[in-house]
Each structure stands twice: as C-alpha cells, then as structure tokens.
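Fold it.
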Amino acid sequence: MSATRVVAVFGTQQGSGVLLAPRMVLTCAHVIGDMEAPAVAHPGRAGTVTAELKWQDHTLDAALLVTDQDLIPPDVATPLGRIRIGFADRDVPLSHCEIIGFPDIQRYGPDGALELDQYRATVLPVAGRLRTALVCELDHPAATDRADGSTPLQGLSGAPVFAGPVLLGIAAQVPQGRGHLRVEGVPMTLIMKAGMPLQIASKAELVTEVHPQDERFRQEYARAVKARYRKTRIFGIDELGTNEATWDLDTAYLSLEAGRPERSPDVAGSGPYRHVQVQPSRIDTLLTGRRRTLLRGEAGAGKTTLVWWLAAHAACGTLGPELADLNGLVPFVVPLRTVHSRGTGLPGPAQLPVMAQVLIDDPPPG
C-alpha cells in the first residue's frame, strides 16, 4: 500500500515524491528548483501530469505540488484514504522502516527508464537531533561510489520514509563519508508546523515500533469484516423472495437521512436547554468531518444497516467523496447488544473479532 503513494517528480532535476492525497504531492524543494511547471508521474499510469507549486520552504527543503487530476490509476484496488503522519520515539531506534523512490542507480534499458527501488532502514532519532533532521541508516549499503563523485542515489530526494503505513518524512540527501548507509530527510512534524496550507492528517502519531506482519493482518481483517457485514436482510415484505430480501451492502446505494439536534433554550429563555430537531440531511453529509457520532432512531430506521454499510464500503474502499477519508481504514464493528448480554464491558483488541463475529486468525505477535 505504501508503494502506491510513490511518484516520480520532474523539476530542474528528477526526484521522488509521496502522494498525500490523489492530487497532492510532497517532495523536496531542491527537486523543483526554479521550474515553473514541474511534472509528476505515477508508475501505474502512462505519461506525466503537470503540477502547480502550492507551497515550498527552502529552509526545510520541502515543497507541495497540486495537480488538476487524480494521479492514482483507476484500476488500483484499494484507494489511498487519509494518510497517517507520525514521528519516532526521541531515544529508541525504530527498525523495519522503508524508503521507496526512483534513484538513478535503478534506471534500466538503453533509454535509462525509471524504476522503483526500496530500502529497508532504521530511523535513528538521536542522530541529527540538533539539526532536526530525520536520519535513517540502511540495513545494507545501497550503492558504491562513482568515479565522477556523483551519488548513484540521486533521484531519491523527496522519497517517503515509511514506518509501516505511517509517513515519517521525506528523504533529502545522502551524506558523504557514510558508505551509502545513511539517508537524511525532513521530518513530517516540521513540515506540518511550517505552515503547509492543506490539512492532510488529524494529528501526528507516536510510532514506537513496527511489526512487518501488521499490514497483512490488517488486510485480512478488512476482508473478514467485508465477508461478515456485506449482506443485510430486509424483513416485513412478504412479497420478496429469499434472494430479493438479501442485499449486498458493498454494492448497494444507501439513502438515509437524519436530523442534527441543536440545543435551544425553552420558550421563556430561563429553563433548561432542550434538543430541537432540524431539517434532515443525507447521512453521509452529516458524517463528513465528524470523528464521533451518536445516531439515534426508532427500531427499523436503518441504524444497524448504516453501520454495516459503512463497514462493508470502508473495507472495500468504495465510499464516496464525502466519506473518502474512511477508505483504506479498517472498521471495527462492536455490537453493543452482544457486549451487554455478555456483561464483560467494552472489548479490548483481542476480543474484537469474537464480538464482531468475524472469522480471522490470531494477530501476529506484538
């Protein structure tokens, strides 16, 4: 999934970049240089797309590009969803990280075509602290020195540094005298503080360790949720046959409306506040931008169907533009009726699959 976000960037020099959104690319400022119309290419589609320079900070060596069309190919099975931003612990090295980009050494063929390369690395949070640099040590030397003194890793500038699915920063330079074992970059925390104009993540999260099997388990859990909650049954209409009464929620169009209650004082203006129901709106509009939502309604109003519909579509990555931030996330469905009947309180991570009645193997160690 991380590799889907990697693009090639063409400014005054060729570099790499990371998709923060389908039309938004983060790269290094020195890659853009004074190029008025930089271009971006995704490995999954032919040709390049012209981009507009939206923001840059030469001190940090970071730049934000915006295109007028999606860079993700339409045949990509899993959409991007909202990117996760993070930072490493202040003192403990963070292993199992990766850097993905388009270095010069990876070119192939008579025309020197671009090709992706991937490097396993450990983030060293103490190294480079005084310069606020993101320092990565590669697991193995990436290349050997060239006779002309140029770095064979040229083109890696702007490449994302991932800890699992979490973006820690972008690569900016390969320091000399380190045998091509070190890559220094710009932390995402500094880029976010520098005034980048578009909101791309709710907050930066602390990453203390990376488990290589987490992503595979996440995908398996999403598939299990889809299998469990993709069908709903319609009751109360005798004319419907067995097949007609069962709907596939992962392909169904669900039209539900709800009203957002607003607090209003009583008529006299001195009593307690009461809730006043306002004009109903589409449920996907009401859910947009809300991290916590309590939905109440009469029996049969569609509350359970809505939860199942959200779970199935989020697992498939097929929610529309209003709820696109949920695409790519794993939904955890917790049936409160089951929780109440068991009398065990809200479940922890180990109990979630049992409560949600999904068939999934045990999570990997850690």
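The first helix runs from residue 29 to 32.
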